[in-house]
Specification:
Blueprint: E1 4-7, H1 12-15, H2 20-32, E2 36-40, H3 49-60, E3 65-70, H4 82-95, E4 103-107, E5 109-110, H5 117-138, E6 141-145, E7 151-152, H6 156-165, E8 171-176, H7 198-207, E9 213-218, H8 231-240, E10 247-251, H9 259-275
Parallel strand pairs: 1-2, 1-10, 2-3, 3-4, 4-6, 6-8, 8-9, 9-10
Antiparallel strand pairs: 5-7
Helix pairs in contact: 4-5, 6-7
Length: 276
């Protein structure tokens, strides 16, 4: 079984944007005897080295590893916001070694204010090239993250094109099962509670061999089986691609199931899917 991580932001429903999410995720990872947790920069109180070192020690003292740290991107703002985002990314790259973390996750940007896909794609590609150029000197990996919410890259074809056009040894790819076009959880507006469209699985299949990490989204509109994403299909695709990397579980509630109840269900659900 691939190593499993919990995304600490999944506890947002209980703790909001605070490092209480990180402590809760670490406690649960230790309780479930899984590999570790992934975190987001918005959960950190500061980038002050002593704070980050103490936070890392608190997590690791539970026998839990820290994976990547995600960068916050404002999807509703035009690409002119990318300059500030790059400054933020560089600060995060400087900070994460104090956590013992060697990778950051960076999404693309939204198509807003009438910007075309081609224009936004080129701006996002240039953003990644700049961030990766800086990351190389720090020995930090930059994970390209497919994301929707009206942003790019959000299809398998866009991901492959982006990876092809960024030249850096720092670049890697994190595949998000719930953020390709075709996922009801990735829609710009409020998504209806129905299963994902075939194009989602087509994108996953296109990109699975390129992924170093897979973010598995769970929605659990009701307790029990995940109805929006077909994990039997997703697991088959990952196995066919010989994917052996970490799997990060991300919970985005679409019903009344709290994260503290949903995440253990997601771990069991995913483990059983791989064991079948």
């Amino acid at each position: 079984m691939n190593p499993i991580y919990l995304q600490a932001l999944s506890f947002h429903d209980i703790y909001g944007n605070s490092d209480d999410c990180i402590h809760a995720a670490a406690d649960m990872a230790a309780e479930l005897d899984i590999a570790g947790i992934d975190i987001e920069d918005r959960l950190l109180t500061s980038y002050e080295p002593q704070y980050l070192q103490e936070l890392a020690h608190s997590v690791e003292s539970r026998g839990v590893k820290l994976g990547y740290c995600g960068l916050t991107v404002r999807f509703s703002e035009p690409v002119s916001s990318i300059a500030d985002e790059i400054v933020h990314a560089k600060a995060l790259i400087d900070a994460v070694p104090n956590l013992g973390v060697s990778a950051i996750r960076v999404p693309g940007n939204g198509l807003v204010d009438g910007q075309t896909l081609e224009f936004t794609f080129d701006a996002v590609r240039a953003k990644f090239q700049t961030i990766c150029d800086y990351a190389v000197g720090a020995g930090i990996t930059v994970f390209l993250h497919n994301h929707n919410h009206g942003s790019t890259p959000s299809t398998g074809a866009e991901v492959l094109k982006m990876l092809e056009h960024i030249d850096s040894p720092a670049l890697s790819y994190i595949l998000d099962t719930g953020q390709f076009q075709g996922s009801p959880g990735a829609a710009v507006d409020n998504a209806p509670a129905h299963a994902a469209k075939p194009e989602l699985y087509e994108s996953i299949e296109m990109c699975a061999s390129k992924a170093s990490i897979v973010r598995t989204k769970f929605y659990f509109a009701t307790a029990g089986d995940e109805k929006w994403l077909d994990y039997q299909c997703i697991v088959r695709i990952l196995e066919n691609a010989n994917f052996g990397g970490p799997i990060s579980i991300v919970y985005e509630p679409k019903g009344n199931v709290l994260s503290k109840e949903a995440l253990p269900m997601a771990v069991r659900y995913l483990t059983e899917s791989f064991d079948r």
